[in-house]
Amino acid sequence: MKQAKDINEKSTWQELTIGAEIYEPATSVLVETGDWRVMKPVFKEENCKHCMLCVPYCPDSSIPVKDGKRLDFDFVHCKGCGICVKVCPFDAIDFVKDLKEEA
Amino acid sequence: MAIRDRMSGNEAVAVAMRQINPDVMGAFPITPSTEIPQYFSQYIADGKVDTEFVAVESEHSAMSVCIGAAAAGARAITATSSCGLAYMWELLYVAASARLPITMAVVNRALTGPININNDHSDSMGARDSGWIQIYAENNQEVYDNYIQAMPISETIRLPIMICQDGFITSHGVSNIELLEDEKVKEFVGEYTPDNYLLKQENPLAVGPYGISPYYMEIKRQQAQAMKDAMPIIMDVAKRYEKLTGRKYGFFEEYMMDDAEVALVVIGSSAGTGKEAVDRLRAEGKKVGLIKLRVFRPFPRVQLAEAMCKVKAVAIMDKAESFSNSGGPLFNEARSSLYDLPNKPYCINYIYGLGGRDITVEDYYEIYNDLFIINETDDPGDVYRYVGVRDSRFGEGGFDHKKYEE
């Protein structure tokens, strides 16, 4: 049975499952949804007071928190919406064009 | 031994359903297909089948029930007509793209505007691009035979299938029929054993996922391939059915085509009237033939083109308008199938029988006469025509293809 990890955007129509059926659970972990991003947030750790305002505002749970401190962004899920940039009171997040490196 | 009986086309379908005993029926009543779920409900009430009947509030839900049931691994059926089929529209595409082998009895009826409950093919012809196999019948016997062949075709290729018959003409017209014994039908149709289904707990399954642009087109290409691959399966099932019953089926039936000079291509019950016209004209020594198309999806373009090439002029009959300004759906596909052939016949279109307008033997005389005129003059005139419509340009003498150009 064809597994989701063996299917990608280069698979031919013959290589896809019939009717696009998916034969296993939790295949979303294989998908990088962050690749739609046009802009991206840049974490400036030196300005951050870890007030935690950005964390609940993020619609994609892309700001990980560990031991009371926020960490750098999770770019697998961040869509570059910029809400965190707007809500940050300390200018600890820059917002820049997300230039993808050519493969 | 076959069972001789007499019944309407609707009852014939319901009897076939009873003999198959499918798992789930989701249906909503609509004229002229109402009798099918009605008869079948009686069979359920009488304990003759153990099908789960889901009484829904609309055809949209009827098809949704079938999709859910088929995805779960059940054999699912429904029946509908006209605006009921139209109301299933978006789900038709869902069923086909998810490759769910649902069997739908379509009792063809005009789509409203003006309000009309009588027969034409505008409902199923409108759904011709939805990815369903479509098989049409001339009479009650064929409806029954087609229905029994439906599931072996549909479940093998994993495409949903419409078994179409003409509303009132065959659905309510009672005629003689040869039924098979229940066990023979059960054996022929077999059990439905899908490889994967939602209720199979060993492997979780997702059906009908979001197909973003990097995937959608590949899935559509797969569907197109399935429709192509359905062709030999339809023939295999027909051969198996012939062995069982002696009744031969193909993509189409050729009637008096071997030495014919002109012919017409027609779908459904009107072929019966057409054959009568052929017989009478043959008695006068006129070499006329007829092709009755049984399978419209997949469209048997190579085989049909070959058959049409036996004659010099063909009239293609459409019981549905497509308002394309270039003829009906059958005309466009049948005529285009001839394009690459060197010795193709003249090909003209007649729109006929809309909203239950009768087509008569005399109408067919007119058509064959037009074809002979085209043969003699080598001038097809306007190829997009109507027959059986009142037209101020034509008097008692009827249609004149020269006048048609004015």
Describe this structure in words.
Chain A has 103 residues and is mainly beta. Chain A folds into 2 domains: 1-31, no CATH class; 32-103, Alpha-Beta Plaits, CATH 3.30.70.20. Helices cover 9% and strands 14% of the residues of chain A. Chain A is built from 2 helices and 4 strands, in the order βαββαβ. In chain A, strands 1-4 form a two-stranded antiparallel sheet. Chain A is elongated. The mean pLDDT of chain A is 93. With 406 residues, chain B is α/β, with parallel strands linked by helices. The N and C termini of chain B lie far apart (59 Å). In chain B, the strands form 3 sheets. A 7-stranded mixed beta sheet of chain B has the order 3-2-4-5-7-6-12, with helices on both faces. In chain B, strands 9-11-10-13-14-15 form a 6-stranded mixed beta sheet, with helices on both faces. A two-stranded antiparallel sheet of chain B has the order 1-8. In chain B, helix 1 runs parallel beside helix 7. Chains A and B meet through loops of A and helix 9 of B.
Give me some keywords for this one:
heterodimer; A: 103 residues; mainly beta; Alpha-Beta Plaits; 2 domains; two-stranded antiparallel ribbon; two-stranded antiparallel sheet; 9% helix; elongated; B: 406 residues; alpha/beta; Rossmann fold; seven-stranded mixed beta sheet; six-stranded mixed beta sheet; 15 strands; 40% helix; globular
Write the layout of secondary structure elements.
The complex is a heterodimer of chains A (103) and B (406).
Chain A: E1 39-43, H1 54-57, E2 65-66, E3 69-70, H2 83-87, E4 93-97
Antiparallel strand pairs in A: 1-4, 2-3
Chain B: E1 3-7, H1 9-20, E2 24-27, H2 35-45, E3 52-55, H3 59-72, E4 76-80, H4 82-87, H5 89-97, E5 103-108, H6 122-126, E6 133-136, H7 140-157, E7 161-166, E8 175-179, H8 182-189, H9 213-245, E9 252-255, E10 262-267, H10 270-283, E11 288-293, E12 295-297, H11 301-308, E13 313-318, H12 329-336, E14 346-351, H13 361-377, E15 384-386
Parallel strand pairs in B: 2-3, 2-4, 4-5, 5-7, 6-7, 10-11, 10-13, 13-14, 14-15
Antiparallel strand pairs in B: 1-8, 6-12, 9-11
